[in-house]
Specification:
7 strands, Rossmann fold, alpha/beta, 353 residues, 3 domains, 14 helices, two-stranded parallel ribbon, Helicase, Ruva Protein, domain 3, five-stranded parallel sheet
């Protein structure tokens, strides 16, 4: 129904039906009922009524979109988790063991004390660019069957991005945490706080203050977004943070984190990652079969280190993808049916010093 054809009273009734269509916390129900009462008082002044109505309608839409009582069911199978972690990551045994330990504790706790809330550890993956920090966080959400909310902190300069803005502002909306929960539709996702050391200098202190509240188990069961203005329980969310180094992270934040060092890869490890993980995926993405592109064992070092040392595997991934694209173009154009990259032609396919 078009809003212009509604009377003020029928418009208010529609808001009440929206609110009653989902289960909301009692306190939030009371808050909305109070807003509806204020709206009824303003019903006679139609010039201001519809502006007030639009504001409250937007607020109701956000409130009913949030998973106040909805949780996803965890997959707590150690063998499954170990298999998936090994599929997605080469080495990193200490990191994998720490994740498996957490899943074990969660499984045991839920079996023996199903009504007890478990305080999850807050993992901080520390490492150079390309060492797999963000990918590991995604793997945690996959092996546990939880939704993933990624919040990038790189260059972040306004704490309102996290906390939202008061509804008194005309263009106000919730912060990134609440927006993510609205999309995830579950109150126990994995929340990835990515690159928390790359916050803008002038906002470092205030954003670290928001992080303290987010990560403190004594506070995050009543996280308050300025727009929603009603506490949301984040205590069952699993927070994972990443950073390149910890020097710019406040001590109060570090006290709430469990740092896990992501090691740099040596050449031998990169060759294993490239050969067993990255190449098979790149072949599929390029539409190639494994018979159409073959990389000789003696040139893998050229693929791994064409332009010098790199701690991570992002450059390696880009090199393999570029190689696959060139092979696909040659095969599609009929210049070759099979590409074999060896010492005689590697410089044709790979950039070199």
């Amino acid at each position: 129904m078009d809003e212009q054809s509604l009377t003020p009273e029928s418009a208010i009734d529609r808001l009440v039906k929206k609110k009653d269509s989902v289960k909301l916390p009692d306190g939030l129900n009371d808050k909305l009922d109070e807003l509806f009462s204020q709206l009824r008082i303003n019903a006679r002044a139609e010039d201001t009524f519809w502006q007030f109505y639009q504001s409250i309608n937007k607020y109701v839409e956000w409130c009913i979109s949030l998973p106040w009582f909805t949780e996803s069911k965890d997959i707590l199978d150690l063998d499954y988790a170990r298999e998936k972690l090994n599929e997605g990551h080469y080495g990193l045994d200490m990191v994998k063991d720490r994740i498996l330990e957490y899943i074990s504790v969660l499984a045991l706790q839920k079996h023996r004390n199903p009504d007890q809330k478990l305080r999850a550890p807050i993992l901080l993956f520390v490492g150079l660019v390309g060492t797999g920090k963000t990918t590991m966080a995604k793997s945690i959400s996959n092996v546990m069957g939880r939704e993933l909310i990624r919040i990038p902190f790189g260059g972040l300069g306004d704490p309102l991005y996290l906390r939202g803005q008061s509804r008194l502002h005309p263009e106000a909306e919730p912060g990134a945490i609440i927006r993510g929960l609205s999309v995830a539709k579950t109150r126990n996702p994995v929340i990835l706080l990515d690159e928390i050391d790359r916050v803008a200098d002038d906002a470092l202190n205030t954003i670290m203050g928001v992080l303290v509240e987010l990560l403190d188990p004594e506070q995050n069961d009543r996280f308050s977004d300025h727009y929603i203005d009603y506490p949301f329980d984040l205590s069952q969310s699993l927070f994972v943070a990443t950073c390149n180094n910890t020097t710019r992270i406040a001590t109060a934040v570090m006290d709430r984190l469990e740092p896990i060092q992501m090691p740099s890869y040596n050449d031998e490890e990169k060759i294993g990652i490239g050969r067993d993980y990255l190449l098979p995926r790149a072949l599929i993405d390029s539409g190639l079969s494994k018979e159409e592109l073959i990389i000789s064992p003696d040139v893998w070092l050229n693929v791994v280190r064409p332009l010098g040392f790199d701690a991570g595997v992002r450059t390696l991934k880009r090199n393999i993808e570029a190689l696959c694209r060139k092979a696909a173009m040659m095969i599609l154009s009929g210049k070759a049916k099979q590409i074999v990259v060896d010492s005689t032609n590697v410089k044709t396919y790979m950039p070199q010093w």
